[in-house]
Structure formats: structure tokens, C-alpha cells
Amino acid sequence: MVSAPESQPQSLFDKLWNTHLVQAQSETTPAILYIDLHLVHEVTSPQGFDLLREKDIAVRCPERTLATLDHSTPTLPPDKDGRRPYITEQAQRQVQTLRNNCKEFGIELHDWDSPSRGVVHVMGPELGATQPGMTIVCGDSHTSTHGAFGALAFGIGTTEVGHVLARQCLLQNKPGSMRINLDGRLGNGVTAKDLALYIINHIGMNGGTGHVIEYTGEAVRGLDMESRMTLCNMTIEAGARAGMIAPDQVTIDYLRGRRKVPQGEAFEAAAEKWLKLASDPSAYFDHEISLDASAIRPTITYGTDPGMSVAIGEMVPVAVNASQQKALEYMDLSSGQSLAERKVDIVFVGSCTNGRISDLRATAKVLRGRKIAPHVRMLVVPGSENIRRQAELEGLDKVVRAAGAEWRLAGCSMCLAMNGDIVPPGKTAVSTSNRNFAGRQGKGSRTMLASPETAAACAVMGRVAGVSEVESTQEGE
After folding, report:
1. Mean pLDDT within 459-469
2. Which of 15, 272, 343, 441 could potentially form a cystine with 423 if both were Cys, beta carbons 3.0 to 4.6 Å apart?
3. Which residues fall within 8 angstroms of residue 115, CB to CB, at 6 or more apart?
4. What structural domains does the chain harbor?
């Protein structure tokens, strides 16, 4: 590794970048960065393994690569003959190809029979594979999730997947740095998803482009680990390369006892080291923003990017350019319209953004003792099989089914239209996932992003609504 100067104050990002440099960046060549953990799934990995065969080389560090099935996998159970309902033969081939590649190159794969299989950005932290101070990459843009642990984590392209497999290193130009300080405490009923949508609305879809964002402030320290993962997961939707939160006792408590972290005295030594990972008081950032987190309210999107959002109860804003007008036309909305008028057809709770146990508990809390509207179809999809089992131990699946919703196996599901869980053309979905561009959940689908609590409220009311409206309606009956 290249030794970095320690005399000047450094940000958390600087510290991780500098400690992982194999070769410094020059005016003509990118830096070479060492990668601690490479996460792999079935969709973006085949070309990488083909590159290894083409060059006749092995995986450099198979112990630093972790694979799972998630994107193309159906979330319905197999039939009586054990056949799984893959949407296409291509999806099934992707799964089998990953199996074959992991067997050939000696990589740990969480297959259908693994009790830990799940969405890659949910499973990694659950296993303790994600740890503070690491560099983490995956052929998936929402790798930024892992930055919640004080890791430098970002998505890479399919060609880069091959490079990391072959050399455990990556060519990278150093991004700029940004700090977003969130003053104050989140109000009652306001979640990390609302916080993320508020930030993206404030700084814009390109507000973080070319930067790694570190989140700081009272509101961030008040989040549990699962909420921090939600916030960092959405960082990419502001155009940023990665999102980060410095480790603290919340981080240590989450990681303690997980399978892939050090155990016993070794864990205590690691924890002591992890807690020192923080930006120096006088560290330089290229951009700094402060926001009042106490002003945030439960939020929902109305357009075709996560930056087009309003607080529940607010009207659709006036379109200020042709792009926004086009988005409103696609969503069949008008400036000044009340979203409470908007009928909801489908509700999806799940994904690497909001498919964790706390998200399912929050969903069940809203659904308990209630029924979803007769015209609504609702899918609740755990982010991993570990989460599914925990939820079923707590009886959350029974609450979901009693409300009239569907309970599924773990997977990416309706976050993206490539596994059989699809929103039909022209239908409106309220989704806890991370992207809402035109057709993301199916050709012609119209997606509104929200928290699990808001999504469940919309399912019960059958239209755009907040939890407070559900509760007040029940009290008035």
C-alpha cells in the first residue's frame, strides 16, 4: 500500500481512500485501490468470470468474494415437483451460471438452500461481512448501502467485476467529498426513507455527482443501523458515488456476534479500532450542507425520479421545466393536484432499501387489525431468508396475510421488473424501493416511493395517504 501523509486533517473518506491505495493517482492515470470485499450476484457477474477464463487466471482472493442469488429469483415457492417459477429461461440460466462459476472458482455462494440467502446489500451486513474501514464493491449501484458502517462502498460495472475478481484491485479516480449535516431530531412517524427523499429533493438528482457524501449530525446519530443503511442506500439517487456514516456504539452493537466478524477479544480489539474511524475536526470537504431534520415530514414521490417528492398532504408542485412536465404527464398528474385523490393499485414493501426486519415490523404495525382496500394488491417481501424466519417467529406474516396482502420469499422482487413481480402498464404502485423512473417496475408502470409505514397506509386507504389518516379514520368509526 502507498503510505499517505498523516499531518493534515483528513475526512473519513480520505482515511479509507489513503489506507487502500496501491498506487496513487497521477495526472494521466487513475489510482489503484485495494478492495476488501467483493459482493457478487447472478446478473452482473457472468462477464467477469468469462474474463478469467479468457485470460486463464484464477480469482485472486476467493475468500474476499461473497455471492448470492437475488435479482432474477422468483419470490413464490416452488411447485409440488420442486420447480421454481422463473419468469424466463434467461433468469434461470443466470442463476445456474452463477452456481457453476462459484463452484469452478471456489467462491462462497448463498444458494436457494442457504439459510442466509437474500438481497446482496441486506445479506452482507447480516453476516457481518460488511465491516467498518473496508472498501466494498459490487456490480450493483446500491452498494452505497454498506457505507452505513463506515465503509467506502460503491457500485462497479461488469468489466470492473472481472478486474476485481482477477486482481482484487480497481482503477479509480478519486471523487470529491461532501458533508451533509442533519441538525435536530426526526419527528414522530418520520423515517430514514423520508429523510433520504427530503435530502434528494433538496440537493437534486445530480447534487452529489462526483462526490462521496458523509452524513453527520444529531438526526443521523439517532438512527439505528437499519435506518442508516436505508439512508446510505439512497445516496446514489442523488448522483453521489457513495454515502458514509462514521462508526459509533450503534455500529458495534449491531456487528457483535455476527458470523463473519472477529469473535471474543479479537472483536473488542477490532471495535476499538473501528470507533477511531471518523473525520478529523478540521477535515476539509469540497462541499458542506446543513439541513434541519426536525422540519421533515412523511414523504412520497410524485414524479419519475426520487427528487420529485412532497410531504404527505401537500399538492403536486408546478412543473418548472419540460422534464418535470413530461414526468407529470407520465404519472398522469397535474400541477396543484392533491395526491390524496390518487388511487393506488399495488403496494410493494421490500428491496435493499426497506426489506429489513424493522421495515416489516413497521408495516405490520400499520396493517394489524386492518384490511387493505379491496382493489389493492400488496406484496411484502423480506430482504433475506434470515429476516423472513425472524418475521415469521414474530407472527408478522400472519398479520400481513390477515390484512389481505401477499407474503413472499426473500429476493429483489418488485424493485425491478426482472423476476416475475411486475406492475402492469398504467397501474400506480407505492413502493419502498429506491427508483421510480418510467418503467422501472414494469413497462408503463407508475411508481411512487415511500417508507414502509406510508406504503402500508396507502394499501389500507386504497389511495395516497399517511399513517395519521389511517389512525384518525379508525378512531372516527
Report:
1. 97
2. 441
3. 385, 386, 389
4. 12-172 (3.30.499.10), 176-247+277-295 (3.40.1060.10), 300-476 (3.30.499.10)
